[in-house]
Design brief:
heterodimer, A: 3 helices, elongated
Chain lengths: ~50, ~500
């Protein structure tokens, strides 16, 4: 049984030309290497505790 | 050896001197990325574009600089009508590696055709607007926008899926199925399209086998009922459906016609047979044409004919009035003409009478003047004056003739001189003088044929052809045996 409203919620707006630049910056996501580097950076920092 | 990630030198312990990443892990990540790229490529070759997209995205998670994976992802986007997303992927790919990158070629092709690019942009904008309309449940506007979107970007898979959903929502299952089939032509194993199609088929089978008939989609209830009332309502609906189904089975068993099913008012849920709108359209069109023609003949044509007839009658009346007026004018003019003709005749008669009186008076005057000259002893003047009178004139009285003859006899010598002068002048071709002399002589001596002939010749010489012909005719009539008879003038 198709739930129209639920199905429609799955559809996201398409990218427009005016949003191309933002789209490119957003699209340039981190890969595994970036994630590892980020983790290593965080590991090297001293731990911060909540007061 | 340089780091695969940042390009800095790698230390002896296989760790990058700059980013600190162990190259072994990076190589593993790159291999995984290549694995998913290969998987995505296989999917793309089988036109399983949704799966290909997923695999290629995973490949990029492991190595964002996997140019082939990124380029292929752009192609997959482009194939499913998402040209702007494709453009973004190729731009990023070109930034990672410019030399020898096929993404540059794709970008040139896409950016070289600005009209096409604008068309894709417009399609994306309209698609977003469509989503807005659909969420507002404004399905008519959504359908209009979707048709525009698909005319501008006919490979836009998402637009086809939304179109199918809207058609399903509107109950137009045939069109929904067509839209989904179009999606499956582009993306062979599109999960959403397959899901919608399977739901449609399931419902059709349920209708065909007489199993419970379910609504294709959930209707939003603005006023939700409490649970107990809802259960009661559901039970009632189930009872109604059960009753309806039972009746359908009975009718089918009896072999009754489909019309009997539709005529049963209790059966609100009809058979699932598709309505052939094409056939109905032809019928409606024919009926509309027939009604239109009938309306034209029974409503428009009589009014038009009546109008034309009244116009003709008006025209005829105006022409009749004009004609009668003209007839009156013609009668008046004819009467005037008749009166004028009578006046002309009267005046002509008066003029003739007066002319006769004048000529007689002139003759008498000339006779008197001639006689007076003769009595005064001037014979030449007497001859000249009497010479104006023609002795053949029937209006001349006998008394006048005898007086004139007496003078002629007494003036024979002068008349002979006059004749001689006329003949001499004629011989010298002095026709004016010849006419003057011979006219006098011939009037007084009308039986001298030669003189008359010469007078006629003199007239002819001066161009007075009519007078000459009169004289020739006179000679021919009175002296037919003479040598001067002339036939050439006739």
């Amino acid at each position: 049984m198709i739930n129209f409203d639920e199905e429609i919620k799955k559809f996201q707006p398409a990218a427009e030309m005016s949003q191309l630049e933002d789209n490119i910056y957003k699209n340039d996501f981190n890969d595994v290497a970036d994630v590892i580097i980020e983790v290593m950076k965080q590991a090297q920092q001293p731990p911060q505790y909540n007061e | 050896m340089n780091c695969l990630h940042c390009g800095a030198p790698v230390l002896i312990n296989d760790v990058c001197s700059e980013c600190g990443l162990k190259q072994e892990y990076l190589i593993k990540a790159w291999n995984t990325s290549l694995y998913y790229y290969n998987e995505g490529l296989e999917h793309a070759k089988m036109r399983n574009l949704t799966s290909a997209e997923e695999s290629l995205k995973t490949a990029l998670r492991y190595n964002k600089a996997n140019i082939d994976a990124r380029n292929l992802l752009g192609l997959v986007y482009y194939e499913t009508g998402q040209a702007i997303e494709a453009l973004a992927e190729w731009v990023i790919s070109s930034n990672y590696q410019y030399e020898g990158n096929p993404a540059n070629h794709y970008l040139e092709l896409l950016q070289g055709n600005q009209n096409k690019l604008n068309s894709f942009d417009q399609a994306a904008k309209k698609y977003n607007l469509t989503l807005h309309y659909v969420r507002q449940r404004n399905h008519d506007l959504a359908l209009i926008q979707l048709k525009r979107v698909l005319s501008e970007n006919p490979r836009f898979v998402k637009a086809y899926l939304v179109l199918a959903l809207v058609y399903i929502q509107e109950g137009n299952l045939d069109k929904a199925r067509k839209a989904l089939q179009r999606v499956l032509k582009i993306d062979k194993y599109n999960p959403a399209a397959q899901h919608y199609l399977s739901e449609l088929l399931k419902n059709e089978k349920q209708y065909a086998t007489g199993n419970p008939v379910e609504t294709v989609y959930e209707e939003e209830d603005d006023f939700p009922l409490p649970d107990t009332e809802l259960q009661e309502q559901e039970e009632e609906e189930l009872d109604e459906e059960e009753t309806a189904r039972r009746k359908i089975r009975e009718i089918i068993e009896r072999g009754a016609a489909a019309e009997d099913i539709s005529s049963d008012q209790n059966l609100e849920v009809g058979s699932y047979q598709e309505i052939k709108y094409g056939k109905h359209n032809v019928l409606y069109l024919t009926a509309g044409l027939a009604i239109g023609i009938a309306a034209m003949f029974f409503l428009i044509m009589p009014a038009r004919l009546q109008q034309i007839n009244s116009e003709n009658l008006d025209l005829k009346a105006s022409y009749s009035a004009e004609l009668s007026g003209k007839n009156v004018t013609i009668n008046n003019l004819q009467n005037d003409n008749q009166k004028l003709q009578e006046n002309i005749n009267k005046l002509t008669a008066q003029i003739e009478t007066m002319n006769e009186e004048n000529s007689a008076g002139n003759v008498n005057d000339n006779v008197m003047a001639g006689l007076q000259s003769y009595m005064g002893g001037n014979k030449e003047e007497a001859i000249t004056k009497l010479g104006t009178i023609d002795m053949k004139d029937e209006g001349l009285s006998e008394a006048s003739k005898s007086c004139i003859q007496s003078v002629i006899d007494a003036c024979e010598a002068e008349l002979t001189a006059c004749r001689s002068a006329g003949m001499t002048a004629y011989g010298a071709e002095n026709f004016e003088e010849a006419i003057k002399q011979l006219q006098v002589f011939c009037n007084l001596k009308p039986d001298d044929v030669e003189a008359r002939y010469n007078l006629a010749k003199s007239y002819e010489g001066t161009g007075n052809i009519e007078a000459a012909h009169n004289l020739y005719q006179d000679i021919n009539q009175r002296f037919p045996d003479s040598d001067y008879v002339t036939t050439s003038f006739q």
